[in-house]
Backbone:
């Protein structure tokens, strides 16, 4: 693997688009203590779909790009759909062949991250956050 | 010190000539002499200590106790038996907290630490403070990262019972003025614990000169194996310390309901010790002393200064800590590149640096950053390696920003 596979143009661009909104009382706040990646997240449902997702995130490129992808993938989806996305992404990161790549959209460009165990948690953090969000408070802690 | 000659003593450096290892504050590489000492131990001297009558085991016991004397001489402690073998700095400090201060701190007594402590010299005190109703107070740092002695004078008062402080910051690379700090503490009858995890590898520490009550350090950060560490304690305090582990090796006799312990240090060293670790540590001390601690200190300081000077020449690089460097530890950050991405970039280029909070979260918060990069160099590193790092940092900026 080359560095450019890990840091493709599309990843750098999406990292720049990482949402950074002011959030008062986040439903979920996750923090990676080893590197400082940090995400706060809120949402609004309409007819059981996630109509709006508000995110404040800061961290490394991999994390920020994954956050942008996650938001794109999860907007207007139901809880069940989001859970499926997250499970697929998680298996994608652990290199499971048997996944539905279509569910992952542009996030498939993060494939190289799966070869770097130390960085998988950077890509996983936003997906973990949305998973906890749709599963309500009992999973928040 | 002839760097090229020294490097030959380290098999890792010879076997991996293109690899630049700049994470020595995490752990150091081992010289051939230490590796050989472990092999020799397993081939010839692998017997348990302090328990068997046969002569082979007795020989190992003697070697083991001679190592204890070697360590005592390394830190220039006066009294023999004034150190105990532990698993490392973390265990040493926890043992002091849970075996001594747990029984000697009252409600409203105060423990003083600095804002720059490693979590290993912070969490045990947070815990004891909570359990005993004592208070934890912090000495601040100056703008340039050096310890603020005025703050120390203010924070340490008649309620203070212990000052627990690092000799060298594992993030800023600063050497604290231990003499002044211990002086301030002792004037108020305050005990002092020195966390020497980063100091023992690089600077000479003289117990008789400084007279701290306690000192802790780790073998693996000073060329020895992992899993061996030292706790020095003033003898009368060690005698009052409660063992935190009970079991074999530490007792005089046992009946169905009671036991009577041996004298120190054995009372505080329950179970079969890390014999290979102790032998490795003693061999590591021989190596360090053959180079001379003063030479090591001078070399690392000069190398730290060199890297600092080169780094500060690059636009958009911030280096933490004072302009005048004291050790080979240099923490920095690069504008618009997250430390984690920078460390991965360097990793792909065969350079090992640390990225993160370096187990000192209150300090990184104080510096106002989420994470930093840290290059920590030892006497086997050199300017050539620094130049390569600098080159890669410059290259990295166009990789991430110009892509
Ligand atoms: C200043 C300081 N104290 C304590 C420790 C903990 O040492 P160990 O992990 O060997 O117990 C370290 C290690 O990084 C350190 O740098």
Residues:
């Amino acid at each position: 693997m080359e560095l450019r596979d890990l840091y493709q143009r599309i990843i750098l661009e999406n990292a720049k688009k990482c949402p950074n909104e002011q959030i008062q009382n986040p439903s979920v706040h996750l923090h990676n203590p080893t590197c400082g990646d940090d995400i706060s997240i809120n949402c609004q449902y309409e007819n059981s779909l996630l109509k709006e997702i508000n995110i404040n995130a800061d961290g490394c490129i991999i994390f920020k790009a994954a956050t942008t992808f996650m938001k794109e993938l999860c907007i207007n989806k139901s809880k069940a759909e989001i859970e499926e996305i997250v499970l697929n992404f998680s298996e994608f990161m652990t290199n499971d062949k048997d996944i539905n790549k279509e569910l992952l959209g542009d996030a498939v460009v993060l494939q190289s991250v799966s070869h770097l165990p130390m960085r998988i948690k950077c890509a996983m953090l936003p997906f973990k956050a949305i998973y906890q969000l749709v599963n309500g408070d009992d999973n928040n802690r | 010190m002839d760097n090229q000659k020294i490097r030959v003593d380290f098999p890792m450096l010879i076997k991996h000539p293109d690899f630049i290892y700049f994470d020595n504050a995490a752990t150091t590489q081992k010289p051939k002499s230490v590796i050989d000492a472990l092999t020799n131990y397993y081939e010839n001297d692998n017997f348990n200590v302090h328990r068997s009558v046969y002569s082979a085991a007795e020989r190992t016991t003697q070697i083991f106790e001679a190592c204890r004397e070697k360590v005592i001489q390394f830190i220039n402690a006066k009294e023999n038996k004034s150190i105990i073998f532990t698993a490392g700095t973390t265990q040493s400090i926890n043992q002091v907290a849970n075996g001594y201060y747990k029984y000697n701190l009252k409600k409203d007594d105060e423990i003083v630490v600095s804002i720059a402590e490693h979590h290993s010299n912070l969490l045990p005190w947070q815990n004891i403070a909570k359990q005993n109703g004592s208070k934890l107070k912090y000495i601040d740092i100056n703008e340039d990262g050096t310890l603020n002695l005025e703050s120390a004078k203010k924070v340490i008062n008649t309620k203070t019972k212990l000052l627990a402080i690092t000799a060298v910051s594992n993030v800023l690379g600063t050497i604290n003025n231990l003499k002044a700090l211990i002086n301030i503490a002792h004037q108020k009858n305050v005990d002092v614990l020195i966390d020497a995890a980063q100091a023992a590898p690089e600077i000479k520490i003289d117990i008789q000169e400084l007279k701290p009550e306690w000192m802790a350090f780790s073998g693996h950060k000073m060329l020895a194996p992992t899993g061996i560490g030292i706790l020095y304690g003033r003898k009368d305090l060690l005698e009052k310390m409660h063992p935190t582990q009970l079991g074999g090796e530490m007792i005089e006799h046992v009946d169905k309901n009671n036991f009577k312990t041996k004298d120190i240090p054995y009372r505080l060293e329950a179970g079969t010790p890390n014999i290979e670790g102790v032998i490795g540590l003693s061999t590591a001390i021989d190596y360090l002393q053959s180079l001379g601690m003063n030479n090591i200190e001078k070399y690392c300081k000069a190398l730290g200064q060199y890297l600092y000077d080169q780094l500060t020449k690059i636009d958009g690089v911030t280096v933490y800590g004072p302009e005048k460097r004291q050790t080979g530890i240099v923490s920095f950050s690069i504008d618009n590149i997250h430390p984690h991405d920078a460390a991965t970039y360097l990793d792909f280029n065969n350079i090992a640096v640390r990225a993160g909070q370096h187990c000192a979260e209150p300090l990184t918060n104080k510096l106002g950053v989420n994470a930093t990069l840290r290059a920590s160099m030892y006497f086997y590193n050199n300017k050539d390696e620094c130049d390569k790092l600098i080159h890669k940092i410059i290259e990295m900026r166009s990789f991430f920003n110009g892509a």
Notes: The pocket of pyridoxal-5'-phosphate is lined by residues B 25, 88-90, 118, 120-121, 166, 170, 195, 197-198, 218, 359 (CB under 6 Å).
